[in-house]
Amino acid sequence: MKDPFSEILLKRLLAVAMLSATLLAGCTFNAPDGPPFRAHPGPSDQEALVYVYRPPTEKWGHDRTYYLFDEKEKLTDLLHGSYCPVLVEPGKTMFLADVNRDFRTWIAGGAVELAAAPEGAVVEFDADPGKTYFVRFHPIAHAFTFEPTMTLVSESEGLYELRRCKLLSGENPE
Asked: Rounded to whole angstroms, how far apart are CA atoms 32 and 53?
């Protein structure tokens, strides 16, 4: 005769093992795999260099990916602890970041969160030729959502935070 307590215990252990494997896989799936930060050559007199980065300081939501757009197109996915150097033309510059609403994000966050998710983050500034700018992307955790924010920061702050970031694969403004 089967022991009902052993059967229940086995089912619970299996459920915990499956949940643990799912959570662990999700927390490491979206890590940048490029080299650690290094300063890129400065921009020419006809362009500006912008480092858009997502520092590895988030307490929650590491696994979420966010699309990064400029005025014209999608540039890349911003991953936790990543950066992307972008060369831009001088003048009005705009970047937008919004959550990647794919099936995997839906499973991780649930339909309620995605339905209640705020709009994407936007940063706009006038880029001067030959200058370098630093834009920090950081999602703020709320009860059921993550509010994306983008902030233009000083060179010293940007360089300090970029030291812990990795280049997104295939990204190089040269």
From this structure: 11
Q: Report how far residue 157's alpha carbon sits from residue 6's, in angstroms, rounded to the nearest whole number.
A: 56
CA gap 136, 127 in Å, rounded: 16
Angle at 108 between CA 107 and CA 110, to 5 degrees: 60
Spans of all domains in the chain: 31-167
pTM: 0.73
Q: With contact defined as beta carbons under 8 Å apart, do 118 and 102 qualify?
A: no
Class of domain 31-167 (CATH, top level): mainly beta
Residue 127's CB is within 10 A of a number of other CB atoms, namely 20
Cβ contact 52:18 at 8 Å: no
Query: Which structure tokens are listed for 100?
Result: 């990647």
Q: Give per-residue pLDDT as tens, 121-151.
A: 899 999 999 999 999 998 877 776 777 889 9
What is the CB neighbour count within 10 angstroms for residue 160?
Answer: 13
DSSP calls for 35-71: PBP-PPPPP-TT-EEEEEEE-TT-SS-TT--EEEE-S
